Amino acid sequence: MRKTVIAGNWKMNMTPADTKAFFEEISPLISGRKSCGVVFCVPFVDIPAAIKGAKGTGAKIGAQNVHFKENGAYTGEISAKMLVECGVEYVIIGHSERRQYFGETDETVNLRTRAALAAGLKVILCLGEQLDARQKGITNEIVSMQTKLDLEGVTEEELKNVIIAYEPVWAIGTGLTATPEQADETCGVIRATVASLYGKKAARDLTIQYGGSMNEKNAAELLAKENVDGGLIGGASLKPAAFAAIVAAANKKA
Ligand code: PEP
Predict the structure, then answer these.
(1) Going by CA atoms, what residue is nearest to atom 3 of ligand 1?
(2) N or C, which end of the chain has less CB nearby within 10 Å?
(3) Residue among 167, 237, 239 whose CB has most ligand 1 atoms within 8 A, to mutate
(4) Known active-site residue 181
(5) Mutate to test the pocket of ligand 1, among 64, 166, 233, 238 (most ligand atoms within 8 A of CB)
(6) 174-188, pLDDT tens digit by residue?
(7) Smallest Cα–Cα separation from 121: which of 229, 199, 39, 57?
(8) What secondary structure letter does DSSP report for 169?
(9) Please, what are the domains in the chain?
């Protein structure tokens, strides 16, 4: 049966020194018996400090982006092989901030996803609708189309290394959260789309997170929903006590 996974997305926050201090504070709060998976997706330069800091906690370290080429003249980019060699296990792909500010499209999200999976990384694939799509009542069509385009060419075997993060764009960093019912319904649409592509078993086993202003106060309610298998957490992942409280809420579900 699918795993509950809580992942933090630090975005462009924290220096290596901040990372060391962060793990000193959070490690005792998340160590010990855990049934949910925990991942910290950190800026590239924080990776060594995060791997060192997370030792013994069971938490895994992820990056926030990866290029689809193995190497070459792509100034400023990082390849999947580079991440793997640094000890990174996860990578976020297709975050709405990448789509909005850095020209990421479903096509490049798909290329990055396939390259990351081929290199042995686990992918947290982000998708979700804009506010106007939610208001026009076309959320289901949008997320279904994104799921199909972003997973094109991904095999059923590779899908076992994919987590989908449903992140309504209007809820990211805004303090607005989807209601538990909205999150459950849309994660359910994504699951049904995956079932149409890969079959019922693959869909049943797929971890689908909700992301969008999830915090220590609303996590339990969101995670209680059948189709919500964890969270991708931005702002609250920078606060050790808040993030640890979300992990505790997920442990009750897992
Ligand atoms: C995110 O960055 O993926 C996110 C969900 O951010 P926040 O929790 O701050 O809304």
Answers:
(1) 234
(2) N
(3) 167
(4) no
(5) 233
(6) 988 999 999 999 999
(7) 39
(8) G
(9) 5-253 (3.20.20.70)
